Amino acid sequence: MTDDAAAEALRRRLSEEAERSGYHLNPDREFTLGLARGLLLNESRYGYQSCPCRLASGNADEDRDIVCPCDYRDPDLAEHGACYCALYVTQAALDGAAKLHKVPERRGGARPSLAAPPSVHPWTMGTGAPRPRAAGPGTAGHTGAPGPTPYPVWRCRVCGYLCARDEPPEVCPVCKARKDRFERFW
Fold it and tell me: How many other β-carbons are positioned within 10 Å of the β-carbon of residue 10?
């Protein structure tokens, strides 16, 4: 498969997955093809499709938040009508009811990135001291309760899907329930 054919296949797959999940790809085909090429290039470089709009470190654990669709997509869509790279847009943006503008970068702070010193890890929250974690499954002291997370955990009341993020997703990726069907779990 040629690079252009692979990018077109990825663009189509992303579009189908987005629509099934209640999301929308940017309607500019050439623009989204360029982003698809970037995703494929990053996959060949790093082994995962990190956002083409951000610098990846090459460490899968450090880059987990920027694997497409990144952790920042939903808050960006809710606040700005598009994600940081504008691969995903809202229905209002598609309809022309929302004017798109530059989306500020959400990634940073205590999150490891090329802009943060390597000693800063998300679980330290910038303090330099590791946050306490619950014992994992199969270890002494494990109670079944999750370890601490810097984000609230949301539960879909329809199917039980759990996610840790600032806000619940607009649409549940499992059962397609709307945001209002989520409850704060912990």
Answer: 19
Say which amino acid occupies 87: L
Listed in sequence order, the residues at least 6 apart from 75 whose beta carbon sits closer than 8 Å to its beta carbon are 106, 165, 166, 167
CA within 13 Å, CB half, 4: 2
**Beta-carbon contacts of residue 61 (< 8 Å; ≥ 6 apart):** none
- Report the chain's terminal Cα–Cα distance, integer Å: 46
The domains of the chain are located at 3-95, 153-184
Degrees to nearest 5, angle at CA 71 with 88 and 23: 30
pTM beyond 0.70: the answer is: no
- Strand, coil or helix: what is 95? helix
Q: Are 161 and 173 in contact (CB under 8 A)?
A: yes
Q: Which tokens is 45 given?
A: 């470089």
Answer yes or no: are the C-beta atoms of 76 and 84 closer than 8 Å.
Answer: yes
The pLDDT tens digits of the residues spanning 94-135 come to 998 988 889 999 987 434 333 333 333 333 333 333 333 333
Helix axes 29-46, 3-20, angle to 10 degrees: 110
Domain range 3-95, CATH architecture: Alpha-Beta Complex (3.90)
